[in-house]
Amino acid sequence: MIERTEYLHELIGWKDEQVIKVVTGIRRCGKSTLMMQYQAHLKTLGVSDEQIISINFEDLEYEDLLDYKKLYAYLKNRLASPGMTYIFLDEIQKVPQFEKVVDSLYVQKGVDLYITGSNAYMLSGDLATLLTGRYVEIKMLPLSFKEYCTLTNQDREQAFSEYLRVGAMPYVASMNRTTEKVDAYLEGIYNTVIVRDIEDRQLRQESENKRKITDIALLKNIARYLASVIGSPVSIKSITDYLVSSGRKISPNTVNDYVEALVQSFVFYPAERFDIVGKQILKSNRKFYMVDLGIRNHILPRRFYDFGFSIENVVFFELLRRGYRVSIGKQGETEVDFVAESNGVCTYVQVTADMTAEETFVRELRPLQMIQDNYRKIVLTMDKNTPGNYEGIQVIYLLDWLLGETKN
Fold first, then answer.
1. Are 227 and 300 in contact (CB under 8 A)?
2. Would the pLDDT of 38 be above 90?
3. Which of 136, 140, 280, 300 could form a disulfide with 25 if both were Cys (CB 3.0 to 4.6 A apart)?
C-alpha cells in the first residue's frame, strides 16, 4: 500500500483547525486508504482509539446510520470527554440530508471532522451554503506517474507505457496486471461510478426538485464520446449534434445535465479556454480530460492510439496535482496547450510527442514565442534529443518533468 504522502501531509497540516476537511475524488482513487493512513498517524501522536470515530457508508454494518438523525445521535453519544474527537465519515453523500449532521458537528467543541465523497454534487446546494468559509476541499486524484513508478518498481520508460495503458487507479498498480484482470477491475469501477454515484446524486436532486439522470445508456454514450475527443475543443452543441446524427433525439439542456453529472462524478475534468491577451476566460468550446486513461482505454473500441492526446491528458492532471489552475491558452489564431496559474504567476505549457522534425519543432514553439509577457514557457516532449533552452523556451523530456527531475 503506497502512502499518498502529499495528501497525507495536507491533512496533517489542517489537524485540529476549525474547518471541516472534505476529501473528494473519483471512487477507488484512495480516499478511504488516505483516511486510514491519517488515523494511523494520529495514533502515533498519542490519540486513543476512543477519540477516533470512523464510518464508511459503503459498509453494510452502518446501514442504520444512513438516517441522518440516527447518525447524529450515534456520533454525539461517542464524543470523547475531555479531549478532541476525530470523526471520519467516508462516502457521506450516501446519507440524505447529511449536511445537517455536518453542520451540527461543526459547532460542537472538541470535534475535528473529516468527510469524503465521490461526487462534487455533495458540495452544492444546502451544504455549500451552510459551510461557506468553514471547509477546505482536498481534491484527490489517482496515482501520479511518480507514485506509479514507486509502487511498480519498473524502468521508467516501461512504467510509462504501462501507465498510459492501464491507468493510475491505486489497486491496479499493485495487482497482477494481466489484460483480463485490469479490464474486469476497471469495468467494475466504471459501472459503479456511472450507476451508483449517479444514484447518490439523484437523492440530492430529488430534495432540490431538479431534473434527474435516468438514461444510463445515454450517459455511457456521452462518456464514450468525450473520452474519444480528449484534447479537442467541444461544446454542448457539438455533443448534441453528434448524438442527433447518430439517430438520438435530444435537447442541448439534457446533454448539459448529463455532461455535468460526469464532471461531478470526477470522471471528466473540464478546462476552460483563456484569452492570453485579453486575460479573460472564453465561454465557448471547453476541453475535457479523463481522470484515468485505463478507464478510457477500457470503454473505447480502439486501443493504443492518439499517443499525443494521451500524454496531454497526463500533463493536465499532473499540473492539477501540483496545485495549478489549468486552462487552455488562446493567442490570436494559435493555441497554447495549457496556461497553468498559481498565486498569480503563470506557466505556459506545450505538450508534443515528438519534435525531431523541424516543421513540428517550429510549430510547437511558435505559440509560445508570440506571448509577450515574461512568464515561464516550456515544451514537454517524449523526444529525448531535443531538450534544451531555445531563446528562453525550455524543452523538457516529459518523464524527467513527471518524476521531478527538472525544475518544476
1. yes
2. yes
3. 140
Partnered with residue 395 across adjacent β-strands are: 379, 388
Q: Whole-angstrom Cα distance, residue 402 to residue 351?
A: 12
Neighbour-count burial of 74, counting CB atoms closer than 10 A to its CB (0-12 exposed, 13-18 middle, 19+ buried): middle
User: Which neighbouring-strand residues pair with 330?
Assistant: 275, 335
**C-alpha–C-alpha distance, residues 292 and 164, integer Å:** 9
Spatial distance between the Cα atoms of 265 and 283, rounded to a whole number of angstroms: 22
Q: How many residues does the chain have?
A: 408
Cross-strand pairs, 114: 21, 88
Residue 158 and residue 153: Cα distance in Å, rounded? 10
Please report, as a single letter, which amino acid is at residue 328: I
Q: How far apart are CA 361 and CA 18, in angstroms?
A: 51
| Of the candidates 159, 162, 164, 158, the residue with the CA atom closest to the CA atom of residue 149 | 159
| One-letter identity of residue 3 | E
DSSP category for residue 234: B
Closest CA to 312 of 407, 406, 379, 394: 379
304 band by pLDDT with thresholds 50, 70 and 90: very low
Query: Which letter does DSSP use for residue 60 in this model?
Result: G
CA dist 111 and 107 (Å) reads: 8
Written as nine digits, the cell of 12 is: 496533517
Share of the chain above pLDDT 90, in %: 72
Is residue 287 a contact partner of residue 313, using CB atoms and an 8 Å limit?
A: no
The reply to whether the predicted model has a pTM over 0.90 is yes
Is the sign of the CA dihedral 211, 217, 223, 226 positive or negative?
Answer: negative
> Mind listing the pLDDT tens digit for each residue in 95-133?
988 888 998 999 899 999 999 988 887 776 656 676 777
Residue 373 in grid coordinates: 509577457
**Count of beta carbons in the 10 Å neighbourhood of residue 11:** 20
